[in-house]
Amino acid sequence: MGLTSALAAAATRRVAVLVVETPGWGRARCAVEREVRRRGWRAALCPADADVLAVCGRPGERMAAAVDLVWAQLPGPRARIHLLDPNDVAPALDDAAAELADDGRQRADAEERPHDPLMGRPAVDEDGHEDAAAGEDDEDDEDDEDDDHLGGNGDHGDMGHADMGHGDMGHGDMDMPMPGGIPLAGGGEDRDGLALDVLHVPLGPVMPHWPAGLLLHCTLSGDVVQEARVEVLGALEPAPPAADLVHGSPADRCDRAATLLALSGWEDAATGAARLRDALLTDADPADCRPVLDRLARRVSRSRSLRWSLRDLPEVRNHVLVLLASAAASIDGVPAPVSATPLTDLPARLAGRDLAAVRLLVAAAGLDVAAAARTGAVVA
Amino acid sequence: MSVVEVAVGWVPLAAVLLLAVAAAAAALDGALAARAAGRPWTAGLPVPWLETARLLRQRRRSTVAADRPLAATGRIGLLIAALLMVVVVPLGPWTLADLSVGIVWFNAMDVLVWAFVWLAGWGPNSVHALVGGYRFLAQALSYELPLMFALTAPAVAAGSLRLGDVVAEQQGLWFVVWMPVAFAVFCAGVAAFSVWGPFAAAAGPELAGGVLAESSGMDRWLVLAGRWALLAAGSAFAATAFLGGGHGPLLPAWLWTLVKTAAVLALLVLLRRRLPTVRPERLVTPAWLVVLPLVLLQLLVVSVVVVGRG
Question: Are A258 and A308 part of one and the same domain?
């Protein structure tokens, strides 16, 4: 018993937290990330890696379903917290750590869970989503089945990673072999004219370093995204707090830079940008952040390896530099233009790029998903 | 200095030593990460132990229609490959197996890593894991040939594929002095086959963890520990083949091997914090058009010196 509790004590000193941001609750997400860093915990990259699921904001119906699916994929011991106010973060994380360390409670949780991985839910069309796709061709309808699985197949849901073999065919083709209950992938021509299997893979809405609430329906050949369709899963009414992470504010720019640096695999620079963001979000004088910001910007612009690694995606590196420079300018009171790609332009930018490049390009597009969610501008 | 084979009973100790060196490297990495996060560096030192405790408690999970035997093979394989690598690396005067083809053995083990990483990606039946596996293969196509030729340089200089002979040949002058290019390329190759640092694209955040995306608990620990163990085994090999192994003044030979291994490891860990991940598709051109010719040139220089020496 002494060993078990010692193990639990050590294990809960470094907790992996998967943060889910509902559009409009960016500040709560930043507060979680800050507290996680302060405690020496770490952010999880995927559900399999996570101990705690921290849901920021009030997710709408479909977003909540996706969050539930992610929750089912946490291996356990697991704890789930809901956050609306950035000030509640520290006590909520304390509770989560206590719940993780409680062996009896975790054992009870494990006994209640199904032993085999979930298959996801069947398609439903009561959320108005099917209307959005009405009048489109067959292929898109099949896409919609995939959406409603929300990253389906239970094996990975949310993150939308998976859906292997979740192919190009409707669920009616029962005479085809269905390993594990998943229809085999259909064929199609890829960008180079090769006949490859085609998979429909939803990216998002729950994924670290990904715009909150964004759901990208991708058609993949290998790891190349042939085409993509964008949707935004919004928050539940009443509307999110108005004084959130304002698009174009210095803190928001640092946050976006941190995301891009993290996706480029430059952990230290990403941590630096996230620390700046957190300093700018507190009441401290923004002018104090200038020297650190300038140092980070110099470090990033001088990095030859970053330039070389991103040479075929020059807009990504440019965007990081512009974000850091414009954050500095807006601290000084110089108005800096707020760049934002309309959501409708996103699919054309992503077609023909590989999955990793798509992640970088989405982060570099400067999307304002929260605004799209507020105005209900869900696009097909 | 001649190298003698020790009894099989020492194998468990070698395994513990490898894991201890790997854990020390992970602790250094944790300390540097803690400092970057604005915390005292000492707070990051216990990271490998805390992460191990966390993963020991965590449940394993599976995915729909996963290929479990292949996934398990891939996950456990990295650690096994690292253990098999150190079998031929002498610790000062002792070695577990002084194979006459020791260098080829090491090379064969690092090629096995291709299969293991790919299987770990294939097994879970998940897009991100599979894409990660394929990205590793793309990276492997870039690093493997330069790595092989870099390995050839010490063999040519010593006129033997036996690591004991390679160490003996470095009496007085370490190979790194006259084959620096081969040494640098070999170190980069070690980071690359360890799926680590700038070469961690197969398990990077842009793929939600890639080959690691679906593993938890002990499955995950095996992959993470396997990566650090591969890095440690590669560093030990670099210390032996290029830095003179047990040769050195004052300290006993076994300690010299450890000190040199730790130095190479620390250098890799320090360097890693300054570098972003290299996208595998960017790696192919410089690897084949710049690095490979440079290594061949290095090999030519070494061969000419050996022939000239008679």
Answer: yes
Q: Domain check: are A255 and A184 in the same one? A: no
Residues of chain A contacting residue B220, judged by C-beta atoms under 8 Å apart: 48-49
| Average pLDDT in chain B | 92
Q: Same domain for A14 and A70?
A: yes
pLDDT tens for each residue of A252-263: 999 999 999 999
Q: What residue type is assigned to position B38 of the chain?
A: G
CATH number for the domain that contains residue A84: 3.40.50
pLDDT in tens, B165-206: 999 998 889 999 899 999 999 999 999 999 998 999 999 898
CB contact under 8 A, B130 and A164: yes
Q: How far is A259 from chain B (nearest CA, A)?
A: 10
Domain that includes residue A198, residue range: 130-232
Residue B51 confidence (pLDDT) above 80: yes
Residue B5 banded pLDDT, cuts 50, 70, 90: confident
* Interface predicted TM-score (ipTM) of this complex, two decimals: 0.92
Contacts of A129 by beta carbon, 8 Å cutoff, 6+ apart = A62, A144, A147, A148, A231
Say yes or no for a CB contact (<8 Å) between B59 and A75: yes
CA distance A238 to chain B (A): 32
Q: In this complex, do B125 and A154 lie within 8 Å of one another by their Cβ atoms?
A: no
Q: Which of residues 6-25 of A touch B (CB under 8 A)?
A: 7-8, 10-16
Which residues of chain B have a CB within 8 Å of the CB of A161?
Answer: 126-129, 208, 213
Backbone angles phi, psi at B150, to 5 degrees: -65, -35
Is A237 part of any domain? Answer: no
How many whole angstroms separate alpha carbon A247 and alpha carbon A370?
9
The residue length of chain B stands at: 310
Is A363 domain-assigned?
A: no
What burial class does residue A90 get, using C-beta atoms within 10 Å of its C-beta: 0-12 exposed, 13-18 middle, 19+ buried? Answer: middle
The minimum CA-CA distance between A162 and chain B, rounded to whole Å, is: 4
- A49 → closest Cβ in B209, B273, B276: B209
Asked if the C-beta of B208 comes within 8 angstroms of chain A's C-beta atoms, the answer is yes
User: Are A15 and B54 an interchain contact pair (Cβ–Cβ within 8 Å)?
Assistant: yes
Please, which pLDDT band fits residue A180 given cuts at 50, 70 and 90?
Answer: low
Residue pLDDT, tens place only, A20-59: 999 888 999 999 999 999 999 999 999 999 999 999 999 9
Q: From B284, B175, B306, B157, select the one nearest B238 (Cα to Cα).
A: B175
> What's the gap in Å between the CA of A352 and the closest CA on chain B?
15
Indicate whether A303 belongs to any domain.
yes
Among A112, A147, A170, the domain-final residue is: A112
Element (H, E) at A221: strand A214-221
Q: Give the span between the Cα atoms of B75 and B56, in whole angstroms.
A: 15
